[in-house]
Amino acid sequence: MVNVGVVGASGYTGLELVKMIINHPKFELKYLATSTGDTTIEQLHPSLKDVITKDVQKATVESVVDSCELVFLALPHKASMGFAKDLIDKGIKVVDLSADYRLDLDTYEKHYCPHEDKKNIDQSVYALIEYYRDELKSAKLVAGPGCYPTATLLGILPFIPYIDSSIPLFVDAKSGVSGAGKKLSETTHFVTINDNIFAYNPLKHRHAPEIAEKIKKIQGVDISVNFVPHLIPATRGELVSVYAVLKEDIDPIEVLKERYKDDKFIRIREKPVDIKSTAGTHFCDIYASTNGNALFVSSAIDNLLRGASSQALVAANLMCGFDEEMGIPIVSYMP
Ligand SMILES: NC(=O)c1ccc[n+]([C@@H]2O[C@H](COP(=O)([O-])OP(=O)(O)OC[C@H]3O[C@@H](n4cnc5c(N)ncnc54)[C@H](OP(=O)(O)O)[C@@H]3O)[C@@H](O)[C@H]2O)c1
Predict the structure, then answer these.
(1) Is the shortest distance between the CB of 95 and ligand 1 below 6 Å?
(2) What does the pLDDT read at residue 119?
(3) Average pLDDT, stretch 138-149?
(4) What percent of the chain has pLDDT over 90?
(5) Which residues participate in catalysis according to the annotation?
(6) Do 2-122 and 148-302 show the same overall fold?
(7) Which residue from 5, 23, 113, 139 has the least number of CB within 10 angstroms?
(8) pTM metric for this prediction
(9) Taking the domain 148-302, which CATH number applies?
(10) CATH architecture of the domain with residue range 2-122
């Protein structure tokens, strides 16, 4: 067994991690923490009453080091790097769900804040599993991709060699409200989002530079990314539509099937995808079609799982030499 901990256990992605780890055959949940501690997991999440009893402590580096070999940081950006830098120095494997280790330093500092752990950025591995599987096996520090970049990149990356990169990508994305975390705001207030849909941060969201940077790193292509996210009145789920211009004729379903033939958590669909079929699972469902040189790619994920916690757990499986699918949810909440 490998002793693991979750820092940020009161949050949405923290809860998803706890739910999966308690059923994991090789991970032992040894440590749970929040910014204040002094509570229990069932007090934080009444849905876990009579399922698991465990104290939740105030997060400190020393207590992680005393109890864990691997820790998940389900924290806001900036808070994560405050913990990660000392944990890495002390030999603890770290899986960070925040943006702190996802990006090159310049991109990060332009879109987030000054970085406080510059020396470790280069050793982090980006946990887009289907593209970094081998690197993850020897990683000590893993950066969980953003939820929108996960769905967007899994959908569009196979098509990059066939796309006219002089024309920007247009990415139209929709997310359930849990994508914003548990903290209430005006936009996530029930009265604002119920029976409603609206764009937020159009063409200015910080997941756009993440998508562009990873396309460049993985496929070697510079392409500008116009990204518009929308909030929808659902708890979880993300649907991403990408529009691009092709430079040659392709059969889009065949392109997807060929790229993902060995990837059991990517489902190529013959009809447009929906969010509910992936809710509660690690699957990413993808569909694509063309009309002349126009390409449409549609992908769906559960933002809290494939977009965050189950992707983090798969990364941890690989870091520990376990099977990728160990403890990973595959049955959706449908209906
Ligand atoms: N939600 C998603 O769909 C999603 C998808 C991909 C990535 N992410 C990323 O995953 C991270 C967590 O997201 P979330 O949605 O789970 O957020 P959340 O619901 O707001 O939870 C954040 C957690 O961080 C804890 N925390 C904050 N500052 C802390 C500190 N200094 N020390 C210890 N604990 C601290 C909070 O604990 P307290 O209760 O003590 O405040 C809370 O448990 C974020 O970086 C987010 O961007 C989220």
Answers:
(1) no
(2) 95
(3) 98
(4) 100
(5) 147
(6) no
(7) 23
(8) 0.97
(9) 3.30.360.10
(10) 3-Layer(aba) Sandwich (3.40)
